[in-house]
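With this grant's support, we have settled on a layout for protein records. A representative record follows, to show the layout.
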Amino acid sequence: MPKYRPNVGIVVFNKDKRVLLCRRQKNSSATAWQFPQGGIEEGENPLDAGTRELKEETSVVSVRFVAQIKKHLRYNFPKELILKNKDKGYPDYVGQEQSWLLFYFYGNDEEINVLTQEQEFSQYKWATMQEAVDSVWIVKKNVYKKVRAAFEPLIEKFIVER
């Protein structure tokens, strides 16, 4: 049976109803953008993992949890990445199985710092959900389409406190 890495994907939106996208470090392609994401540690629930990963990758803590997609979403790694990971001694995963969370960001942009100790990203931007789908690595595109379908209506209906 194929083995998937437990993972959490994090969509953060702001008062302008735009979502936080981050560019993978050392990757200048047009599809190097993604939502923050990361592994779920043993004994950790998705909400705790999402909050931890968001802080580690972006320094963001001024968020309020809005929703979670109940069903896990999966994507498979390309074969060359599986072989590369195997050569590096990484666990034998064929892809990632993700829990997806939606957060409202009530802080200021000055709080966002992708140049953290973990540094997975080189920059960030605020974008539309469609831009997120258009800017992500092809391997993740179908998952992002499902995330958009689930979260975009919630973002549009969200009453922003001014």
In short: The radius of gyration is 15 Å. Residues 141-157 form the longest helix (17 residues). Residues 73 and 143 are 6 Å apart (CA to CA). Residues 4-157 form a domain with the Nucleoside Triphosphate Pyrophosphohydrolase fold (CATH 3.90.79.10).
